[in-house]
């Protein structure tokens, strides 16, 4: 029977795989329908109540699509609802947050050099901030500010900047970036579940009852759908950021997170304008490059401490006390610190990969499970076995991890 740690790692992998699959489905349908909506044409042959149409070719066939702002004179027997993609993207993402960051709070969520709080307090802060994001956004949309597209976006951007800073005052840099993604993705998924789909169901119910649906429901749904369209690219960046310490582990990580929202809006503005046949705003790419270079420049500033090298997580004590710890620590500090140190000496490595530092006992104990997974159970580390870690050393790392995990 595989070790518990191995099964947990595979569970994490399975949920991550599901998250990526559902996210592709959601983002793909979202981008498609925004492009379709912007590209609709009004023609003399349109049926009554039709807003526009589009002819498309794909997969060896032709598609003739017509859009109705309210609904046609008759309601088709079959309607395809685009909702499960967003629901399962959020559900799988939240499960991943629980598996990686809540169960691994000592290592991935809490930086005790930033804020030393119990695991449960950090988790409550995480959950509370995500709920706050949706409530604040929804209230803004329903307020007078929501009547102004520009005003709403400016206020929302201010909230996003504030949250980018606030998260870095509570969590690890990696968790701060991830939470900006969760904060934003929750707004997007809630838009679908709480506004867009319910509004569409009101329209369908009115049609079935023989009533004329109120166009306001479609207008509100379209506004939220457009917001989702502009927020998508930043969310993708935040989900990928955990692989790049230069994004999450520098002094100005919250500024980088804020600028990414501007970059995402500019990119979507370019494509939305093209799809609407309103021009080709190449200037947006110039600003995108400027922002990207600015982010790279900001990342060259001071690096944030990982927290693992200075303070041992509560769960790390068992690994420090393990009989095999001293021998395992010697293996790690012999085979790994040329890359996993504050100033790597391996040619071509300028930052510790994923901001993982393994040049002292406390850091090694904090990362016991990762070390066992990447260099004990598997041969992922060192890459290509460039430091020639032996099979005996790998077995020792596994034995040390099993001993500490059993305590």
List the helices and strands and how they pair.
Elements: H1 4-38, E1 50-58, E2 61-68, H2 84-102, H3 105-109, H4 119-142, H5 149-168, H6 173-208, H7 216-240, H8 245-248, H9 253-275, H10 283-298, H11 317-321, H12 325-335, H13 361-366, H14 368-377, H15 391-406
Antiparallel strand pairs: 1-2
Helix pairs in contact: 1-2, 1-7, 1-9, 2-6, 4-6, 5-6, 5-9, 6-7, 7-9, 9-10, 12-15, 14-15
Q: How would you sum up this structure, described in words?
A:
This protein is mainly α and 407 residues long. It has two domains: 4-38 and 84-298, no CATH class; 314-406, no CATH class. Helices cover 63% and strands 4% of the residues. The chain contains 15 helices and two strands. The chain has helices spanning 4-38, 84-102, 105-109, 119-142, 149-168, 173-208, 216-240, 245-248, 253-275, 283-298, 317-321, 325-335, 361-366, 368-377, 391-406, and strands at residues 50-58, 61-68. The protein has a two-stranded antiparallel ribbon with strand order 1-2. A hairpin with a 2-residue loop joins strand 1 (50-58) and strand 2 (61-68). The longest helix has 36 residues, at 173-208. The model has no long low-confidence stretch (mean pLDDT 87).
């Amino acid at each position: 029977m595989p070790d518990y740690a191995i099964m947990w790692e595979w569970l994490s992998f399975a949920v991550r795989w599901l998250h990526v699959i559902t996210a592709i489905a959601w983002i793909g349908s979202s981008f498609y329908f925004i492009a379709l909506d912007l590209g609709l044409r009004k023609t003399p042959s349109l049926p009554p109540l039709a807003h526009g149409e589009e002819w498309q070719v794909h997969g060896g066939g032709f598609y003739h699509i017509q859009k109705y702002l309210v609904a046609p004179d008759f309601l088709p027997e079959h309607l395809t609802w685009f909702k499960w993609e967003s629901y399962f993207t959020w559900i799988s993402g939240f499960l991943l947050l629980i598996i990686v960051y809540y169960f691994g709070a000592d290592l991935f969520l809490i930086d005790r050099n930033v804020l030393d709080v119990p695991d449960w307090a950090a988790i409550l802060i995480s959950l509370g901030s995500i709920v706050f994001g949706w409530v604040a956004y929804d209230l803004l949309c329903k307020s007078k500010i929501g009547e102004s597209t520009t005003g709403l976006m400016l206020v929302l951007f201010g909230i996003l900047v504030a949250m980018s800073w606030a998260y870095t005052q509570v969590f690890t840099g990696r968790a701060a970036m991830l939470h900006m993604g969760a904060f934003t993705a929750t707004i997007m998924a809630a838009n679908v579940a709480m506004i867009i789909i319910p509004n569409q169901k009101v329209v369908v119910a009115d049609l079935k009852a023989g009533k004329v649906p109120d166009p306001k429901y479609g207008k509100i749904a379209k506004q939220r759908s457009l917001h989702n369209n502009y927020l998508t690219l930043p969310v993708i960046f935040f989900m990928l950021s955990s692989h790049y310490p230069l994004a999450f582990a520098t002094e100005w990580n919250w500024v980088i997170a804020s600028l990414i929202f501007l970059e995402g809006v500019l990119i979507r503005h370019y494509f939305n304008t093209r799809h609407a046949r309103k021009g080709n705003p190449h200037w947006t790419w110039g600003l995108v490059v400027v922002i990207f270079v600015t982010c790279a420049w900001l990342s060259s500033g001071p690096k944030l401490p990982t927290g693992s090298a200075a303070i041992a997580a509560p769960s790390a004590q068992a690994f420090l006390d393990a009989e095999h710890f001293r021998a395992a620590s010697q293996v790690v500090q012999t085979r790994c610190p040329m890359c996993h140190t504050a100033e790597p000496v391996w040619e071509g490595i300028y930052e510790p990969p994923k901001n993982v530092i393994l040049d002292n006992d406390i850091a090694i104990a904090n990362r016991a499970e990762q070390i066992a997974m990447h260099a004990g159970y598997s041969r992922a580390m060192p890459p290509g076995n460039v430091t020639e870690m032996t099979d005996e050393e790998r077995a020792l790392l596994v034995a040390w991890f099993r001993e500490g995990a059993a305590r």
